[in-house]
């Protein structure tokens, strides 16, 4: 059985379930061994975060995850002086901790972060693997078991928020997408506990809802939302109510679009 589909204990650490779709696990392991940073691209809710936590556990490394947002600055990653008990003390940020202690630092939606973040990432993502901490005067060299992983959703991208070539060309990059139907059915069944045959109908429905993307919808329904839907159905919610709450309302506020989605759902169930 491929390791990637095993939810087992690695020592103390439970390995989060991740169903691999291609060679992404091997690629990640190789990048880790070769000390290369990795960029994951793909729509929201398609398994990027789960993949990273799975790989970190499989490699037995601590994971430092940061969800980036438009106020996130380099200091939020590296650290800052804080007043503690009348004293000013330097407190490492998650990136600095990962560099000092070893481990995987995952910056989710990195394009959202402020521009000064790339200044910190550049020396870390070339062969120097250095993290300069101007405020403390330190120059940290990343240990062999440090890895930087970043993700972004090309679908949300607009001119002001895309990764500059000088940044993206520092990463080994992989594209993620919604899994093929047979795999997605297995994931939804496993995550929700709903019978596989019933999940198959949801996955088929997702295909027709995803086909509506672009017309009026910014994003297609995610695997995450399918898991939510299956979870509510398994808990006893009527199918149409569950579908409306998970596959319609989160996707659009527009009454016409919602109606179109509901029609597709009613045609299936
Ligand atoms: P992303 O980081 O791409 O936004 P997540 O990793 O948070 O998405 O995935 C959302 C949910 O979808 C997960 O919590 C999990 O339930 C499910 N999921 C998606 N893809 C997979 C997969 N390949 N294996 C296992 N679970 C998956």
TrEMBL record:
All residue ranges annotated as the ATPase dynein-related AAA domain in the record: 38-171
Gene Ontology MF terms in the entry: ATP binding; ATP hydrolysis activity
Matching Pfam families: AAA_5, CbbQ_C
Q: What keywords sit in the KW lines?
A: ATP-binding, Nucleotide-binding
* Keyword Transferase carried by entry: no
Q: According to the UniProt entry, where is the signal peptide?
A: none
What InterPro entries does this protein's entry cite? Answer: ATPase_dyneun-rel_AAA, CbbQ/NirQ/NorQ/GpvN, CbbQ_C, P-loop_NTPase
Q: Taxonomically, which superkingdom?
A: Bacteria
Q: Which residues form the CbbQ/NirQ/NorQ C-terminal domain?
A: 184-267
What family is this? Belongs to the CbbQ/NirQ/NorQ/GpvN family.
Q: What is this protein called?
A: CbbQ/NirQ/NorQ/GpvN family protein
